[in-house]
Amino acid sequence: MPPAFIRHTRLAMIPVVVACAAATGCLGGTYNPSYFPYYLPPGDVIQTHAKPAGLGYFANFDPKAIRLDLTPASCTLPTKTRHVLVATVVDKDGQPRRKRRVEWMIEGAGNIIEVDESGYLPGRGYKVDNKYAVSYTDFFEHKIARGSSDPRDDVTIGPGQTWCVVSSALEGVTTVTALAPEVYDKDRGTVTVKLTWADGAPGLPAPGPGFPAPTVSRSGDERTHATKLVHAGAKDEPLTFDVRAPKATAIGRETPIAFELANAAATATQPATLTATIPDGTEFVRGEPPPSSQQGRTFTWAAVAVPAGQTLTVTATVRPTKRGTFTVDAAVETADGYHAKHAAAIAADTAGLKVTAELPAQVGLQAPVSLDVAVANSGAVEADNVTVWVTLDASLAPASGASPVEVPVGSVPAGQTKHVQVPLTAKQLGHAVAKVNATADGGLTDKTEAATEVRKAATLAVAVSGPDQLALNLDGTWQVTVTNTGDVPATDVVARVTLPASVAGRTATDGGKLAGTDGAEWQIGTLAPNEKKAVRVTATADKVAPKASVAASVVAGVPGARTQAKGETSLTVIGQPALLLELADHPAAIPVGQKATIRITVRNRGTGTAKKLEVTATGADALKIVGGTGADRKPGTVNGATVTFTLDELPPGAAAVFVANLEAVAPGTARLQVDVRGDHLAQPLHEEQAARVTGGN
Asked: Which residue numbers delimit the DUF11 domain (predicted)?
């Protein structure tokens, strides 16, 4: 091989060697513990922020993360053993979510031994120190192995879960707090458990002391991790000891702490002795039952056996005297060697009381009005026995009749707000003020006031306009106009139209709803002072009615404070006349000089009365009109070649007969024309009849 080729090959390998040396730590830099083939990726731990930068920090940036679950719950463990805690971040459907951050914090005895650091990137899980660590929920299923040959030691971690291992070499209590920053609801995103470490008393199921043998139960895709501990001295089931206390209480508030010793065995326990120690900053108020002895701040309850299947409860009531977190340490011991320790950490703080009140800007005289009072607790603990007092001026009166008005609110949790409604009535015109004072235990108080203007109540007026006469089978439209003539808005305004039986509703404007064919209704809503609203309904006349009416009504307000108005307009439904004109035949030939008559009959076959009828008969040159008789037996009016008859009315089904007198004056053919006119006729009725005039006898 040529020397030049060897030289270039060696130069090309230098970067590869340097990179490998850097990756394996040969150049003196930091590296991950590794062995082939797990060299890559190398690098330092990179601590990351828990939330996005900018406005995302304050937003619900991960709406799918709803709740953090932590298992197992609080329990008692032997010292020098390892306890695995499994955290699961779930969505609204209870499904685990992958790659969600969980922060682990512990207080008291013990240390974080190990945390879930699986992954490839430098920002994966890491321990900051023995009291704080960060991990991320897994993408895939993994197993945590103890390293023994017994598979029962293994813990299965599913997708959406992560884990942390805690241990303590000394007796005491470890408070573990797990926090999921992606969960926007802080109460659902934070879980705290207490681990009590004791020497010797508790025993463990096989495989013996050391790492607890966990079991994993599955329900769908959700996984829970539980550890069972069996206590020494128990015969059938373990004797369990627990302390129940509120997480937070107010300074100066009597706070009960319950110590519970439960015996699930089939036999009574040996006599048990309970001791409880309260810290500085608290006062012992009483015990139920009273303690048998006291030494300093430690209280002892004499030995008592717990019957089979029963629970012994001792309650100690304490009163915090300053702000801070105080821990009550308790221990129980039986004559046969069982002993357990437990602690309760309680935050003592003050509640904050803030009251606000609101009235509408305007209210009508004599109208009901609701005073909305909001009581907020800005403190860190619950506000107890909150009471609101409302003092009113003469313009407002309480529904209860008593002033000031007392409204019990009860307890208001920390960070929450409660609303109460105080019903009032506006009694006088003018400016009205309600003064509100809120009180709570611990001397808390706050006050505010709300004001409104009492004005002339909403007053409604309604007007109805439309045709006063309608012919049968024709349509008519009526307009209803609603006006608020008061000084305050009219609310919940409803207008209605009632139609007579002689017409049938067809359509309604402005979103009105027909009530069958009998009328219509409109939900108008709110009318401002002096505001008008016009709506219309169209109906068809289907029955003759000489006297009917279209009625309208309008109502507004709430029950007990209604305002209303009514109006109507008259209506007559008339029929439609239908006239028929008939001409009786005259002699076929009329000699000159002879006279003849012709009968003119007008029949009304319609449903309405025909009015102001005019009947005219017109002759020709050969046939002269010389007179006639009308239906009323009165002679007709002759004007040249025409005779005219009049008739005021022709009822339905009636007939009128008119007689025209003719005289033949010249031989030839002549035509007689008859016309009928009336108020309802746009065009006259017309008939003709031919006549022949001969030369004479």
From this structure: 477-549, 588-679
